[in-house]
Amino acid sequence: MENHRTVDVAILGGGLAGNLLARQLRRQVPGLSVAIFERTTDSSFKVGESTVEIACNYFIRRLGLTKYLYENQLPKNGLRFYFDTPEKDTDLFEMTEIGSKHLLRLPTFQLDRARFEADLLRMNRELGVDVHTGARAHDLQMGGGPDAHHEFSVTEGDTQTRWRCRWLVDATGRASLIARHLDLRTHIPDMPMSAVWGRFKGYADIDDMGPPAWRDRIQHTTRLLSTNHFCYPGYWIWFIPLGRDVMSVGWVGDQKIFHDGMRKPEGFLEFLRGHRGVWQFLREGQAELLDVLSYKHLAYGTKRFFRGEDRWFLLGEAAAFTDPFYSPGSDFIALEADFIGDMIARDAAGEPRAELADRSDTFDAFMHFRVAANLLLYRDLYSIFGSQELMRLKWDFDIACYYNLWAAPYMNDQHLDLRFLKGELRRKDFVLQALATFAGFFKQIERALHERGAYYRGNVGRYIGSLELVDFMDDIFAPRPRKQVLRTTEAIFNATRDRGLALLRDIGAPFERTAQPLPLYEFMLAEPLA
Amino acid sequence: MTRAEIHNRIVGILVKTFELDPADIKPESRLFEDLDLDSIDAIDMFVELHEVTGRRIDVAVARKIRTVDDIVNLVEAELAQPGASSAS
């Protein structure tokens, strides 16, 4: 016989996304009951360990996790990049390195996902969340219209329960129940990326190796806590410390390079062994590989993230995934969770359905904008990753745009202001065109570097310790007038273009347009920048 | 929309978006020199024009705009194109 139960908010999936939202809802709308349904019984190894500024601002400010994070997870020290020769045999200590010589200003963390999720689940239980593990949700029936309710069955061992909820959140990751039920999943063209990753024990302490000069240039901070990227044409290899002597090591790259053998431990090790610097970090193969996982196809999208008026929501990878290079996964969770929390709180407080629908449409459109902008950082650009001179330009550009356009509004809660969001959405096409224009610029420089045999010329023996374009950090700790944001954008765009043109000039490549600074709107044309 | 209506609409946008005094806005007013707009304001102007015409403004054409009347001409030409809307 089937039991019947009700809950206000049902969250399907008890991984990172579902647990973060459950905690947020207990704090934001304590009058609502929350239940989590997680299919597995043990937290497992998952990727997405590296977090960036928006997500960590959410962890600290919205979720009150500062104490937990600093006591149980590792603080992160930014991104660090290493470059190699075509033979991939450069000694680690000779590779050109990009990375800070000091700790960064805004807090970020490296998360052992398995531990973090198990801890969050426990903390959520303590906060009064009704947690069900080993609980498989199925037979979903979604309601709609005013006073919508949803129903689904949950099988736990021999028991089956029919649940009824007012708000339904799908945080089940790629398996997404709602996305399948409503046929929401979309293919993202031209993002043919695969990934393979594993956990290693007994890796080298990168801060306790190498010649004195190499150590000394980072003497005020640590390389180990960074997400260390080894960059190659068409792919990159990550090193993310998880604490307790475990290091996550992963490969992400074009499917043309990927082969099924890499999904097996021996194949993955063989691939890594072909990169001298990487292998040194793994103590010449003495580090022990604990497990290997993989995805053949990484990127996908969704037709819709949420319908607040109909009370259903996709969260995290249940909705979409782009690319892990800049670790945007938990940033997306933070944004979506804030949107979802806001919609549920307003609905519970009696906000009229038409207003909820407008809010939901705006949040949904903004998520699509955010994903579209994120995709433009990677689409057709993996081929430039192997050139230090070009990657440095792209990295400086990308991090400056991230702080200026995305992180600053989030940290000032402007993303919860509908008027602000609608203004951003009106300028959406211009922003996307500008990002596409810069992608074209980077490709143009890549072609010129290849034609002149200069693609690898900066890859050995150099060190770059500072970000060139982020000189506006002091301004982002309060909401800025829109005009100031656009002026900063114009400055970032012109400085990036200047440096790109200087690189072209340096290798003797001709370009057709003026080297003078351009007004902002010129970057928003579908015309080459050089 | 008639030409006069387009003119009034443009004046309305300039007043609302850039907090200009309607009395200062003449057909022959130069945007940068007389009305004190700048290259950043141009982005907002293109966004507004996009909403008037329902078409994405060809910025290469818009580059040639110098005066209020130039904007009126642009919008008039855009509205004459198939696919344009005179959404208010």
How would you summarize what this structure contains?
By secondary structure, chain A is of the alpha/beta class.
Task: Write up what this structure looks like.
Chain A is α/β, with parallel strands linked by helices and 530 residues long. Chain A has three domains: 3-64 and 113-185 and 303-361, FAD/NAD(P)-binding domain (3-Layer(bba) Sandwich); 75-107 and 192-295, 2-Layer Sandwich (D-Amino Acid Oxidase, Chain A, domain 2), CATH 3.30.9.100; 396-524, no CATH class. Helices cover 37% and strands 21% of the residues of chain A. Chain A has helices at residues 16-28, 53-62, 66-72, 113-126, 177-181, 212-216, 265-273, 276-281, 329-348, 353-375, 388-411, 418-426, 428-451, 482-506; strands at residues 3-12, 34-38, 74-75, 79-83, 97-98, 109-110, 130-133, 135-142, 150-156, 159-170, 185-186, 193-201, 227-232, 235-243, 246-254, 288-295, 301-302, 306-307, 312-314, 463-464. In chain A, strands 1, 2, 7, 8, 9, 10, 18 and 19 form an eight-stranded mixed β-sheet that branches. An eight-stranded mixed β-sheet of chain A has the order 16-12-15-14-13-4-5-20, with helices on one face. Chain A has a two-stranded antiparallel sheet with strand order 3-6. In chain A, a hairpin with a 2-residue loop joins β14 (235-243) and β15 (246-254). The longest helix of chain A has 25 residues, at 482-506. Chain B has 88 residues and is mostly helical. In chain B, 53% of the residues lie in helices and 0% in strands. Chain B is built from four helices and no strands. Chain B has helices at 3-18, 39-53, 59-62, 68-79. The longest helix of chain B is centred in the N-terminal third of the chain and has 16 residues, at 3-18. The chains are: A alpha/beta (530), B mainly alpha (88). Chain A binds chain B through residues 426-427, 429-430, 483, 486-487, 490, 519-522, 524-525, 527, and chain B through 39-40, 42-43, 46-47, 50-51, 56, 59-60, 62-63.
